């Protein structure tokens, strides 16, 4: 995965440490059922946003209208300069249930409404 890339849960590259197969089970509870956006982004060359590399089918990102090659410029009122900004803005706002995101697509600015699915607890007994 290129430097400056980040994955928001589509199962692709960027899942990072601890890596595939790492078991986070503790007495049946899972730490890996966090709510994912389903978006993979990479820094732009000019530092003005983050380019969408992939959108997971059926994800909150797809339902909101994100498309590959969109440039994310704003998430919930926070200006985006890098993938780190996208990650921080998402983490800060996902508990609200919904937030807006601004993207540039084919030179046009679009506002998308992201509805974050409710986090459901899971336990294997």
Helix and strand arrangement:
Blueprint lengths: L4 E3 L31 E5 L6 E6 L4 H5 L6 E5 L2 E2 L3 H11 L4 E8 L2 E8 L10
Pfam families: PDZ_2
InterPro entries: PDZ (IPR001478), PDZ_sf (IPR036034)
Protein name: PDZ domain-containing protein
Tags for this model:
2 helices, globular, Pdz3 Domain, 125 residues, PDZ domain-containing protein, alpha+beta, PDZ, PDZ_sf
Mean pLDDT: 80
Low-confidence stretches: 10-33
What CATH architecture label of the domain at 39-115 applies? Roll
Helix content: 10-25%
How far apart the termini lie comes to 36 Å
CATH superfamily of the domain at 39-115: PDZ domain
CATH topology of the domain at 39-115: Pdz3 Domain
The geometry reads as: globular
The CATH class name of the domain at 39-115 reads Mainly Beta
Helices and strands, in order, run as EEEHEEHEE
Description:
With 125 residues, the protein is an alpha+beta fold. The chain has a domain at 39-115: Pdz3 Domain. 13% of the residues lie in helices and 30% in strands. It is built from two helices and seven strands. Strands 1, 2, 3, 4, 5, 6 and 7 form a seven-stranded antiparallel β-sheet that branches. The longest helix is centred in the C-terminal third of the chain and has 11 residues, at 83-93. The N and C termini lie far apart (36 Å).
